[in-house]
Q: What sequence folds into this?
């Protein structure tokens, strides 16, 4: 279950609107967590990354996206059940 912060900001991002709640904000095309870009939409393509911080909060924000499930197990980051080796770099969804 996503947090209220994540739900509000991701909802605004989906609509292309700006929103800031606590440590997370969007300008309608990029979602920032503590000023680190973690979600980006370019020409209707969505890209995600942990920006090197696969924290509970980062995963909460990313997991609000459709068909995205990020989790860690024993220090290894997984994206949709597959090891996500390059989670610090942009990964295109879809």
A:
């Amino acid at each position: 279950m996503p947090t209220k912060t994540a739900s509000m900001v991701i909802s605004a991002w989906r609509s292309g609107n700006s929103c800031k709640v606590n440590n997370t904000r969007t300008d309608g095309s990029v979602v920032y967590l503590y000023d680190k870009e973690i979600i980006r939409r370019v020409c209707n393509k969505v890209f995600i990354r942990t920006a090197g911080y696969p924290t509970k909060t980062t995963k909460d924000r990313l997991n609000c996206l459709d068909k995205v499930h990020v989790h860690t197990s024993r220090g290894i980051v997984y994206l949709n059940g597959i090891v996500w080796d390059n989670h610090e770099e942009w990964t295109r969804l879809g």
Q: What stands out?
A: The first strand starts at residue 19 and ends at 21. Residues 4-92 form one domain. Residues 4-15 form the longest helix (12 residues). The chain has a mean pLDDT of 96.
